[in-house]
Amino acid sequence: MKSFLDENYLLRTKTAEYLYHEYAEKMPILDYHCHLDPRHISDNIQFENCTQAWLYGDHYKWRAMRSNGIDEIYCTGKASDYEKFEKWAETVPYTLRNALYHWTHLELKRYFDINELLNPDTSKDIYDKSSSLLKTDNFRVRNLLSRMNVKIVCTTDDPIDSLEYHLKIKGEGIDLKVLPTWRPDKVMAVQNPLQYNAYIDRLCETAGLNINSYSRLLEALKNRHDYFNMHGCRISDHGLDYFYSEPFNEDEIKIIFNKIRSGKSLTTDEEIKIKSALLYELAKMDFERGWVQQFHIGALRNNNSRMMSRIGPDTGFDSIGDNPIAVGMSKFFDKLETENKLAKTIIYNLNPAQNEIMASMIGNFQNGRIPGKIQWGSAWWFLDQKDGIEKHLNTLSHMGLLSRFVGMVTDSRSFLSYPRHEYFRRILCNLMGKDVENGEIPNDSNLLGKLIQDICYNNAKSYFGI
Predict the structure, then answer these.
(1) Are 36 and 292 in contact (CB under 8 A)?
(2) Residues 6+ away with beta carbon under 8 Å from 328
(3) Which residues are registered as beta bridge partners of 294?
(4) Which of these, 45, 118, 237, 373, could form a disulfide with 294 (CB 3.0-4.6 Å)?
(5) Are 332 and 324 in contact (CB under 8 A)?
(6) 201 exposed, middle or buried (CB, 10 Å; 0-12, 13-18, 19+)?
């Protein structure tokens, strides 16, 4: 019987143990998609306690706490930090077989050298020890990243962001690279004219343009895109329900933009057309700059309208959607490919029923010059647990080239989430080790070691060129 979280955790064969410890364990981390706050890195902040570092902004934990009957006051409400930690400790034993149980104890072990299981009996000691360490200079956020061998962090940033904190970090000349990622979702959020126009007004100020026409909107976006590029951005990211690929012409898009700019609501057809036009133009900008574009597809967001109005978005009330994606995705990529304007692309699905759609779609648009130009991104959000990761790796292996995969991301707002890369690497090595011992692939250390190190870091470093 194996011990929980021992050195060979998740590694079920001797070959898996060898592959992990010899090839995966010490590889650096390139986190090309996360939601860390660059201000925290710039200021090299210290957290006052473990709750601030661990529970603030973590909607994964909040969902589990609510499911365990914990009142909202202990999730996003006004309870004290220690009371919130107590309620998380009360919930943890009920997360058995959920990835949260694994991540929780990996994080306690890797950052704080805490090996006890978190529960109501141990919560006070664990809170005191972790919080005490977090108050020391060795546990400022840059050291938390260094402790996990993180070399590059790509944050998620709106086009109107000044990038002031990225510039400050770069100016210090530290080893850690912190680069912006262009996330223009609000530019396409035309459903609410009042909110949309307030955002466009802010874009006017940032870009220094009066956006009184669709052409001026594109000019302002190009202005900001150039600014991001000037300051190290090489990646865009889009959160979409599905790929917008409705046929449009420029004259009708001008009319639609003028309509919403005048404060009028759009019809559903008009919304889809202008979203299709904007997504196409943004994709062309990425190609022209040589960026990588990412598309996160399939979240059904803000399902609980009462809680949305009370505490806002990104608080744990999103789930998996089931919009059809194949036809729209194919049309979108084909239009760009036909015009020779398809950038390097990573697509992520949230609905596991669409795994094979994603894995097969990427093969349609490889160009024979850039290895793995079109990527099916790592198991994301509800799928970044053991079963979801294994299914992703297996499907990619069967339908594509696992060896060209650019690997794991944290997709997290927490500086304590980096053991998720270890979790992924152990799962990867376990799959490869099992295949070796089943006689399904050669027991060739050079071949296997290279594949594992490439997936852990080398492929991403080469692919993004950062």
Answers:
(1) no
(2) 242, 243, 244, 245
(3) 237, 346
(4) 237
(5) no
(6) exposed
Supply the DSSP string of 210-264, one letter for each residue. Answer: ---SHHHHHHHHHHHHHHHHHTT--EEEEEESS-------HHHHHHHHHHHHTTP
The burial of 116, by beta-carbon neighbours within 10 Å (0-12 exposed, 13-18 middle, 19 or more buried), is given as middle
Spell out the domains of the chain, with CATH numbers in brackets.
14-45+149-464 (3.20.20.140), 46-139 (1.10.2020.10)
Q: Give the number of other CB atoms < 10 A from CB of residue 132.
A: 13
By three-state DSSP, how is residue 64 classified?
helix
301 with 318: CB under 8 angstroms? Answer: yes
d(CA 242, CA 299): 9
Give the C-alpha separation, 378 to 33, whole Å.
Answer: 11
The neighbour count for residue 403, using CB atoms within 10 Å, is: 16
Residue with tokens 């194996």: 2
0.85 surpassed by pTM: yes
**What are the structure tokens assigned to 408, written together?**
């794991």
| Tens of each residue's pLDDT in the chain, 466 residues | 789 999 999 999 999 999 999 999 999 999 999 999 999 999 999 999 999 999 999 999 999 999 999 999 999 999 999 999 999 999 999 999 999 999 999 999 999 999 999 999 999 999 999 999 999 999 999 999 999 999 999 999 999 999 999 999 999 999 999 999 999 999 999 999 999 999 999 999 999 999 999 999 999 999 999 999 999 999 999 999 999 999 999 999 999 999 999 999 999 999 999 999 999 999 999 999 999 999 999 999 999 999 999 999 999 999 999 999 999 999 999 999 999 999 999 999 999 999 999 999 999 999 999 999 999 999 999 999 999 999 999 999 999 999 999 999 999 999 999 999 999 999 999 999 999 999 999 999 999 999 999 999 999 999 999 9
Question: Which residues are CB-neighbours of 417 under 8 A, at least 6 positions away?
Answer: 34, 103, 107, 410
The tokens 């990225």 sit on which residue? 166
* CA distance readout (Å), 338 to 85, 264, 305: 54, 35, 42
Tokens of 199: 């955002």
For residue 39 the two structure tokens come to 């201000």
238 φ, ψ (degrees, to nearest 5): -135, 130
Q: How many CB atoms lie within 10 A of CB 280?
A: 17
